[in-house]
Amino acid sequence: MLYGHDDIALRSRFIDESDAPEQRKRMERQKLDALLGLAETARCRRQVLLSYFGDHSEPCGNCDTCAEPPKLFDGTVAALKALSCIYRTGERFGQAYIVEVLLGGSDPRIAQFGHDQISTFGIGKEFDARTWRAILRQMIALRLVNVDLAATAACRSRRPAASSCATSRS
């Protein structure tokens, strides 16, 4: 089972580095994506699970997301801020550091690396650190962000997303 972003990244790396044929790797990635989709869903888990097998149902009313639906919001702007921050910090840092930069934190490394001078420093104060971590988990589950365990769990933006973030700002 998967417990956190490091586990997701590790499983992805196992798939990528395996000697299996590309078709098998693609199938394993799809399975991992389905598992992440189930773990991070805001919908009824029964509906998500059944849809994986091609079946449909009404919300069950019994799973955790039916019993206590998560609060949802349009995360487009937050995702763009996070992607931009990941890109502007050189895709070399983990989630905790990215959150610190977005919140305008006082981590000495931020000043050391000059990240207190980038445009994304402090632009995420509308959310607390816990919410930013949840946003980043969703972005990992949606494959907008990869976690590179070989680079100390650094967040890396997916290339098309990073390019659009980098060019959307003047």
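(ticket continues) Second input and output from the same batch:
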Amino acid sequence: MSSLTLCCLLLLFGLSCEGREILVGGKSNTWKVPESKAGETLNHWSERTRFKVGDSLLWKYNAENDSVIQVSQKDYERCDRSEPIRGYKDGHTKIELKRSGPFYFISGEEGHCQRGEKLVVVVLSPNHNRSNVTATPVSHPVNAQITAKGSGHRLNGAWSSIATACLLLLPLGGLLV
């Protein structure tokens, strides 16, 4: 195998292992009290989106009148804000999903959770076998904005060095075979 091929394979492997940055609800300003209980909720969106360990959730919301609180399942069900795991009020909240299993989020503002401003995200196990999952048809298109972590598609650390090496070796490709 040529050095060029090896570099490119390593680069592709690195890109596939990076987590994604997922905009909550698929667009800005979805973290708010739903307009109606019968309409689309963030949990409907979450059920249609696959989350993996290493992905990050990104909330974009008005920090003047809202916040995000990570809570236990019990506090999620009760809309109890008194013992949060973590709380955020910056309007641009980013949380990395570091383990598999459920994550529970509610609004930190009085009455918002009771009116439906809450979210459960289930992160798949790294050993999850996709062949055991039955696909459920969706009657409307799924809107999700998912990007590679970071700004755009920039690479960090070692992967940046590998990409640079590949670019330098590319003109020599014919000589290395």
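Agent notes: Residues 4 and 171 are 10 Å apart (CA to CA). The chain has five helices and nine strands. Closing as not reproducible unless the customer responds.
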